[in-house]
Amino acid sequence: MNSITDLIRNEIESLSIDASRSNVGKVTMLADGVARVEGLSKVMYNEMVEFPNDVLGIALNLEEDSVGCVLLGDTSSLKEGDDAKTTGKLLSVPVGMELLGRVVDAVGRPIDGKGPIESKEEYSIERIAPGIIPRKSVDQPLQTGIMAVDSMIPIGRGQRELIIGDRSTGKTTIAIDTIINQAKINKQGEQSGKEDFRPVYCIYVAVGQKNSNIARTIKVLEETGAMEYVTIVSAPAADNPANQYLAPYGGCAMGEWFMENGRDALIVYDDLSKHAVAYRQISLILKRPSGREAYPGDVFYLHSRLLERSARLNEDNGNGSLTALPIIETQMGDVSGYIPTNVISITDGQIFLETDLFNKGIRPAVSVGLSVSRVGSAAQIKAYKKVAGKVKLELAQFRELAAFSQFESDLDAATKARLDRGARIVEMFKQTAFNPIPVEVQTAIMWGMQNDFFDSIEVDQISDAVTSLKEYLNTQGKEVCDEIYQSGKLEESTEQNLRSALEDWKRTFS
Amino acid sequence: MSTSNRVNKIANLLLSHSLGDNGRVDKDKVSNVLEDLRKNPPLQHIEILKRFAFLVKKHMSSYQGTLEYNGGNGAEMAERLCSKDFIKSNNTEIQSQESQSLIAGIRLKIGDDVYEDSLANRLNNIRKALL
Asked: Which residues of A touch B123 (CB under 8 A)?
């Protein structure tokens, strides 16, 4: 009997010990969502560190004898002397189609009360941006549905276009309009059954915003039926700085999943000024050396590594894209601030919104002179390019002449004609919020403007005329709009149909 | 050179003079180092001594382990555990003590590294997986 039990015991003892290995340290300081930990000698940069009561942190400062960790979640239960343990994992977020229609926090946990997210994949939040080889030039448009933007500052899939302006100038509205327009295009494309149609999925990252504003955005997206194509990553002002710092990276990882799986995605970072402020807070508490405006030295890299992850991939790499619309808030219209100049230099153009224009009732308050799209015009559809080619120049000339004409009583005919045309274009571009216009309707309106259909209408009636024309094009003139939508070109026959449609509309409007 | 850098550099130098041939902290050598410091006190004497103490403690912990166990023979387990490939510290001095918090199993701590195969750890892993 004893020999049998000895045999079994020997067998058990010969089995390998299944020990888990970890690296531990002790919390020596806790302040404002940051912990300093002594030990953790083998921790990796950006590795998740486990604290008691399931609190997680990320190792951001690796020093000779201590580690600085930013803490995620409720840190009130932590105290000095607590153990911290490495996990061997980098911070990851769930990715995939399951996230569409959901509101999540900075690390991808659902906060909308719709139950758990059944995601099959996870992506690390910090990823290397695609290199030169897998990329290709922007060649497909991403229509915002805003006439002033689509005509003068066109955006292409894979582009990074900055939306910049003072507070309350309509920055978020432009981003939300773009998202709503993508949802409309997606639905139209799915109904049309086009084989080559590629929907654009959207990710809206709210950083440091009021909870009430985020709730309003969600409501607008739900009411317009856009929510089914959107994921909202929320790190509101009430959230700790670590979550506000991580949210854009988490959102970007979610967008990258679409790009790497041959799909198109749009990501809005609202806004990166607050993101930089959150990072400054963390850096100062971590005692990193501060530079200009107390921002740490790597604040440029903070945004460049994020925005470089947006790209258009070539056919060999799935042909997907990630378009980025970062938002920056300026102070008193000063675009020469530290963070604005950084982000301007990283992006492929900017839409600059002016407070004066906004207050004059010109909304969207796009400044023609300061706004530019460096790559988007290559992606404009032919029909639109044909009608919108000259409009930016005409409007810029109008703004210049309008300034000088204030001192001149007698104007020559050519100047007067330019001023009249410019005033009408300004009125035509006025657009209400959350009401994007399909590209074919935009084309028809712009064609009407270029072909003098609005010249006989008084300037103060142009907005009404545009509204009336939109209604006409959505009903009686739908055929010609469909023609433009299908072909993407303005053939001679299409122009003839367009002329007769607009003549018909003009009779009813008059 | 900043003040903290200077303190660090001197403390590291003192540590290197305190190590014996086997790479461990030698008590006699530490006494000699302290004696020399007393005779020729440097600037920031106290800061240097504090840093020196920290480095000595850190260095010693790299070859002194603690084995906690519950159930079975701790010393025997330590011997078996140290023979495993994943622990590269053959010269480690291990002190064993019984710990009820493990419920059953062992936990070996050498420096910052913790090797654990305990029921408490497994239950904690299951709890986290279920959350």
From this structure: none
Q: What is the pTM of this model?
A: 0.86
In whole angstroms, what is the distance from residue B122 CA to residue A354 CA?
60
Q: Which sequence spans correspond to the domains of chain A? A: 24-89, 93-380, 386-509
Chain B 95-114, CB below 8 Å of chain A: which residues?
Answer: 106, 108-109, 111-114
> Is the distance from CB of B72 to CB of A17 less than 8 angstroms?
no
Q: Which residues contact A255 (CB under 8 A, 6 or more apart)?
A: A203, A265, A266, A267, A309, A310, A322
Q: Which pLDDT tens digit goes with each residue over B26-65?
A: 999 999 999 999 999 888 889 999 889 988 988 888 888 8
Is A24-89 CATH 2.40.30.20? yes
Known active-site residue A102: no
Q: Considering CB atoms only, which of A13, A41, A64 is closest to B112?
A: A41
DSSP 8-state secondary structure symbol assigned to residue A7:
H
ipTM of the predicted assembly exceeds 0.85: no
Q: How distant is the alpha carbon of residue A446 from its chain centre? A: 27
CATH class of A386-509: mainly alpha
The domain defined by A93-380 folds into Rossmann fold (3.40.50)
**Which of B5, B81, B112 to mutate to probe the A interface, most A CBs <10 Å?**
B112
Instruction: Give the chain A residue whose CA is nearest to the CA of B117.
Output: A19
**pLDDT tens digits, residue range A426-455?**
999 999 999 999 999 999 999 999 999 999
